[in-house]
Structures are given as C-alpha cells and as structure tokens.
Amino acid sequence: MKRIRLYLDTSVLGGLFDTEDTQRVLTVECLLKSIKDEIYEGFVSPLTIEEILKAPKEITEQLTNRIADTRLVILEESEESITLANAYVSSDAIPVKFRNDARHIAIGVCNEINYIVSWNYKHMVNISVRRLVNSTNLKMGYSPIEIISPEEVLGDGEVEI
Question: What's 4-154's CATH class?
Fold first, then answer.
C-alpha cells in the first residue's frame, strides 16, 4: 500500500522547540515518530535546511540530527518549482515578502506530495491561501494540494508516542 507523502515546512520542525505550547512539541514528536515508523513518508527541502541553518547553533544541530534520524527525504528545488512559486506570488496567494512559503508549497506540488504540513496559519494553512494556490495549480496544469496543520495529520494531536 502506498504511504501518504508529507512535506514538512520549517515551522513544523521548529515546533519541537516551542517553549510556550507543550502540546505542539508532543504533536511534532508524534508526527516524526509516525514518519520514522513508516506510517507516512516525510519530506523536506534544501529551503528547509537553509532556514534551519539560521537558527541558533544548538537548535541547528538538533534539527539536523532529527532530520537524519527520522529519515526525512530532502527534495530538490527545481526551475519548475521556482516558476510555480513565482506564480503563487503573482496570483497574490502568497505575499512577495513571504516568498519562501510559496517555495515550500511549490516544491511539494512539483514532487507530487499529498500534503504540505505547516504551523503557518497566516500564509499557508488557511482557506483563502489554499483556494488561490489550487487555482494557480489548476491553471498551470498541476493537481490541487492540501495544506494542513500537524494536528490534522494525527487527528487531534493526542496520539501517544
């Protein structure tokens, strides 16, 4: 049986270090365990790594180790995904100031990922962004993509580790 393919943006991995919301940490831990246990296939991109490298050194090291330990596959960014990301910005799906969010989505779409997973409710996980992204996808010959939160992957986020 083919496993569901999840692209995790940087905000998901950053959730491991949320000092204000312990449930968020547990949710990410459960999600990564589900990927490691091969319930889902997990993916990130060079953009994710690039953004992680901007974090403090101790966080960068921990996240890099988690990516390797969880066996997250690193997808390449392509000219095709850059063109699609530019289309998201041009269609006002994603503000130009947050172009990296468009890049995350486009990398997932161009690699036929089933779900983009993010904690970014302002620029990714919301109805209006999904509608504009999917409208752009259809106009450019791509399939629609679901952009969801980690809780949606796990049900209610209360899955035991």
Answer: alpha beta
